[in-house]
Specification:
Length: 343
């Protein structure tokens, strides 16, 4: 099938990628119509790998934050039919391993994840998925908004994992797509103060427009958070994938509180101030991707979290992906989430 794919490192072109088999029982074919550009996609484009996940063969279609239209369904599929507009969860778990049996499909070691080598991604004519991974969206919801359900799911999962409760003060390091998604997920759980620490002024402004408090990181953000929250946050989230931010995240909660690491640092090993962590009996959660958050994400983005779509003001047709990727890589023009729209 046709794809606007990577044909070499750093190079996009129209190309042919392998066809999918017809949908089997419980399977669904979706024609993608929107796909968000994720930092991980930018990595694959620039470097051809993330750690040991390597593009070993071109052409390779990237993209996992997608929405589209159901094209075909297999036997036994009852919740969607051809023509339905849907949001898509990108990970297909094995269903057999211990994490899968325990309801933690997001850490399934055998997950087949859209746009993670060598599973072809969403920037092609159609994708084959399972019924559980598609969620119908309301008529008034745009495909771009539906594609935001994937990063929002990461925030919903992290807020759930760290068990953010009513009235709790939250600090978030990073006001990019994941930081803002985490912020709206915490607000949906009736958190108290929600403070985002972020160096980029445009991102702080966006967070403020969405009703959150912000901090520049030029001054000591840990001190500032302690001052604002009476001794420290109840929960701190790291949503930047940055070594310094990880340090701040574990130092800004109050004694006996929680931290949650969501970001993906490029370093394999990072230092943690272990005595401060120990003295505080800090609980550190680590969140990976999202776990069965799609229905909640659709509901949130169609309601209380609608302003999350304000982060995707940069929209491109599919064959302008190179411009979208350049913009995302350079973080130019205040871009937060570049969105590719296919028709
Ligand atoms: Zn992503
Ligand atoms: Zn599994």
């Amino acid at each position: 099938m046709k794809a606007f794919a990577l044909v070499a490192r750093g190079e996009f072109a129209w190309a042919n990628v392998p066809d999918e088999p017809p949908p089997g029982p419980g399977q669904v074919v979706v024609r993608p119509t929107a796909c968000g550009v994720c930092a991980s996609d930018v990595h694959y484009w620039r470097r051809g790998n993330i750690g040991n996940q390597v593009i070993t063969e071109y052409p390779y279609a990237v993209g996992h934050e997608c929405a589209g239209v159901v094209a075909e369904v297999g036997d036994g599929v009852s919740s969607v039919s051809p023509g339905d507009r849907v949001a898509v969860e990108p990970g297909i778990p094995c269903g057999e391993c211990r994490p899968c049996r325990e309801g933690r499909q997001n850490i399934c070691p055998d997950v087949v994840f859209l746009g993670t080598p060598m599973v072809q991604g969403a920037m092609r004519e159609s994708i084959l998925t399972i019924e559980e991974n598609v969620e119908p969206i309301p008529d008034e919801m745009s495909f771009a908004a539906a594609a935001m359900c994937e990063p929002l799911g990461v925030g919903i999962h992290a807020a759930r994992l760290a068990d953010v409760r009513r009235g709790e003060n939250v600090a978030i390091f990073g006001a990019g797509p994941i930081g803002l998604s985490t912020a709206v997920a915490c607000r949906a759980r009736d958190a108290g103060r929600i403070i985002l620490a972020e160096p980029v002024p445009e991102r702080r402004r966006l967070a403020e427009e969405m009703g959150f408090e912000t901090l520049d990181i030029a001054l000591d953000p840990v001190e500032a958070i302690r001052d604002l929250t009476d001794g420290g946050a109840d929960v701190a989230f790291e949503a930047a994938g940055d070594v310094r931010a990880i340090d701040w995240t574990v130092r800004s909660p109050r004694l006996g509180a929680r931290a949650c690491i969501i970001g993906i640092p490029s370093e394999e090993t990072v230092p943690v101030p272990i005595n401060a962590v120990r003295r505080a009996e800090l609980t550190i959660y680590n969140a990976r991707r999202a776990n069965r958050t799609l229905a909640d994400a659709v509901r949130l983005i169609n309601g209380p979290a609608r302003d999350l779509t304000r982060m995707c003001i940069h929209s491109f047709p599919l064959d302008e992906a190179p411009a979208a990727f350049e913009l995302s890589a350079a973080r130019a023009d205040g871009v937060v989430k570049a969105m590719l729209e296919f028709d």
